[in-house]
Amino acid sequence: MSASRPLPNPDPLTRPYWEGAKARRLVLPRCDACDQWHFYPRSVCPHCGSDAIAWHDASGKGVIYSVTHVHRAPSPAFEAMVPYAVAIVALDEGPHLMSAVIGSEIAQVKIDAPVTVDFVDEGDITLPVFRLASAAKI
Amino acid sequence: MMPQPLIVGVGQSRIGRVPDRSTAQLQSDAVQSALADAGLALNDIDGLFTTPLRVEHWQAPAAVVANNLGLRPRYMSTVDLAGASGAAMVQQAVAAVAAGHCTTALCVAGQNLLSHRTRADAVKSMAESGSAHPQFEVPYGPVVPSLYALVAQRHMHQYGTTPEQLAEVAVAIRANAALNPAAHKRDPITVEDVLKSRVISTPLHVLDCAIVSDGAGALIVTTRDRARDLKQKPVHLLGAGVGVRHSHIGEAREPIVTGAVEAGRQAFGQAGLTPADVDVAELYDCFSITVLIELEDLGFCAKGEGGPFVMDGRVRRDGALPITTHGGLMSFGHPGVGGGLFHVLEAVRQVRGDAGERQIPGVEIALAHGNGGVMSVHCTLLLGQESRS
User: Fold this and answer.
1) Which of B140, B143, B151 sits opposite A72 (nearest CB)?
2) What is the residue-wise DSSP string for A106-125?
3) Mean per-residue pLDDT for B186-208?
4) Rounded CA gap, A72 and B209, in Å?
5) Domain boundaries in chain B?
6) Does the pLDDT at position A53 exceed 70?
7) Binning pLDDT at 50, 70 and 90, where does residue B130 land?
C-alpha cells in the first residue's frame, strides 16, 4: 500500500474508533438508553434519539453485505492494487461499515460470506479491514 | 392563499465539450436562453437560486452569480442537496415566489467540469468530494461508481437483477439523446456495447455511468399575474417532496431502499396524483442502478422489480413509461451538481409539448427526480399544464 493513500483525520466524534483500531480493537458506539449499536458515529442515537452514547468493544465478526471489485483507481495511491475488493460488512451487532477484504482472491469474496476484523497499519493510522472467516489468521 | 407560481422559461448553454466558455459564461448563456424563452429581461429577476460548484472556489456562489449577471436579488440562496439540487432549487424558487419573497426567480446551475481539468483530476476530486465518507470510506479506495456498484451488487444478489437489465437503462437513455441535437453523446449504443465497455467497479461498466460535460441550465419562475403576458404556455409545479434516509452508503442499514420513497410520496400526495398518472419520468441517471431504484421507490413498480420493469421497451420513448427523454446525465450532459436541473428543463418542455423530435405525444404530467450523494437525498417534482387544486 502506498504511503500517499488518503487517511482519516480523526476528530472528537470519531477519535475513539481510531484509538481502538490503533490498539487492534474494533470499538463502536452503543446507546446507553436503548442498548442498540450504531455506526458511523453521530451526536444522537439513530434508534431512540438519546445522546447517552458510549463506545464498546464489538465482536469483529460479520458477513459481507455487498462487495465490488474496483478496476478504476480513484487516485495514483491505489493504482498498483487494482482490482481490489471494497465491501460493506454487516456486523453481528447490526451496524454496517465499509472496509477492505484482504488475504483472499477477490473472486472468493462473496455476499453473505462470514468475515472477521483485522488491522493494517498505515503510518500513524490503523485501518480496520476484514478477512474471510474461512481464511482468517489463527 | 397566493396563487401558485408558474414556470415560464427554460434555457441552456451549449452542452458537451465547450472549452471556449468559462463557468460564468456558460451560466450566462443559459440565463439569456431562459430569458428569451420566457420573454423576460435580466432586470425582471428579483430572486436567485444556484448550486455549489466543483471547479470554481466561489464564496457564496449565489452572490458571485448575481454579480456576474448584474442582479440585485431581493431573495437568494445557494442550494446544496448535491445531485438533488437541480430539482430542489426549483421547489424552493416556487416556494419563495409563493411566499412573496420575490416576484420572478431565476434558477441557474452548471460549470465547465469537462474542460476545466483533466479526466484524472476529475475522478480524484469526485472520489474525495464527500460522496465517500472521508474517514470511513475514502481510505479503502472506492471510486464514486464503486459506491453505486455496492448498491447494484446487493440489488442483483437480493432480487436477481441482471447486467443486461442495468445496461438497458443506458441504452434507452442514449436512444433519447440521439434525438436531442443539444446532447453531448448521441451515437446509439446496444446492450452488448455496454457489457463490453470497460469495467469501472463491478458490476458497473463505463457505459453504466454518467458522462462528464461542460454546460449550464436555467429556469424561471414567476407569479401567475406576471406570467399572463409572457411568451410560453406556463407550467405548474403540482407537487414536490424531498427525502433522506442515510448520508453515506456504507452506514445505510438498507441501502437499496432510499429517501425517494418519502420524496415521491410527498410529491404525489401534494399533487393528488399516483405513479399511474405520470406520462414521462425524467429520472436521475448518474448510474444505471440509480434508475432501477428510483422506479421502485417512486412506486412505478414493486421493490426489486426495477430490472424486469425496464425490459421489453417499457421505458423507451414509445413504451408505457418513457424515462429521461433528453438523454440525462448518461448522454445529454453532466456538468456536476446542477446536472439535475436539465431533467426539470426537459419535464417543462415535455409538458409544453415543444421538445422537438423527442416529444412524447400527449404529455399531461411529467415527473422530474433528483438524487444527491449516494442514493442519500432525493427531490421529486410533478409538473403539469393545469393546476389541479
Assistant:
1) B143
2) GGG--TT-EEEEEEEEETTE
3) 98
4) 13
5) 6-116+212-227
6) yes
7) confident
Per-residue pLDDT at B174 exceeds 50: yes
Q: For the sheet containing B214-222, what is the strand order?
A: B75-78, B47-50, B104-112, B214-222, B6-12, B235-244, B377-384, B365-372, B280-282
Q: What pLDDT score does B3 carry?
A: 65
pLDDT at A137: 57
What backbone torsions phi and psi does residue B63 show, to the nearest 5 degrees?
Answer: -70, -40
Q: Crossing angle for the helix pair B288-297 and B144-159, nearest 10 degrees? A: 50
b/e burial code for range B26-57 (CB count within 10 A of at least 16 → b): bbbbbbbbbbebbebeeebbbbbbbbbbbbee
For residue B141, list chain A residues with Cβ-Cβ distance below 8 A: 5, 70, 73-74, 77-78, 81, 84, 86, 100
Task: Give the contacts of B195 (CB within 8 A, at least 6 positions apart).
Answer: B163, B164, B167, B205
> Which residues from chain A sit within 8 angstroms of residue B251, using beta carbons?
39-40, 95-97
Q: Indicate the fold that domain B6-116+212-227 takes in CATH.
A: Peroxisomal Thiolase; Chain A, domain 1 (3.40.47)
Contact B68, B28 (CB under 8 A): yes
Task: Please give, rounded to a whole number of angstroms, the shortest distance from the CA of A101 to a CA of chain B.
Answer: 10
**pLDDT tens for each residue of B99-126:** 999 999 999 999 999 998 777 777 777 7
Contacts of B146 in chain A (CB under 8 A): 68, 70, 86
With cell 440585485, the residue in question is: B72
C-beta atoms surrounding B117 within 10 Å: 15
Spatial CA neighbour of B332 closest among B305, B355, B307: B355
Residue (of B171, B375, B102, B364) closest to B254 by Cα position:
B375
Q: Is B176 helix (H, G, I), strand (E, B) or coil?
A: helix
Interface touch A71/B134, C-beta < 8 Å: no
**pLDDT given for residue A2 in this prediction:** 46
Please name the residue that has the C-alpha cell 422489480.
B305
Cell 477477490 found at: A106
Q: Is the pLDDT of residue B304 over 90?
A: yes
E strands present in B225-305: 235-244, 280-282
How many degrees, rounded to 5, is the angle at CA B99 between CA B384 and CA B93?
55
- The chain-wide mean pLDDT, for chain A, equals 94
C-alpha cell at A111: 455476499
Q: What are phi and psi of A78, to 5 degrees?
A: -105, -5
Strand partners, A68: A86
Q: Nearest residue of B to residue A46 by CA position?
A: B246
Q: What's the confidence (pLDDT) of residue B117?
A: 76
- Interface ipTM: 0.96
Of A91, A86, A58, A82, give the one whose Cα is nearest residue B133.
A86
Residue B1: pLDDT over 50? no
pTM metric for this prediction:
0.96
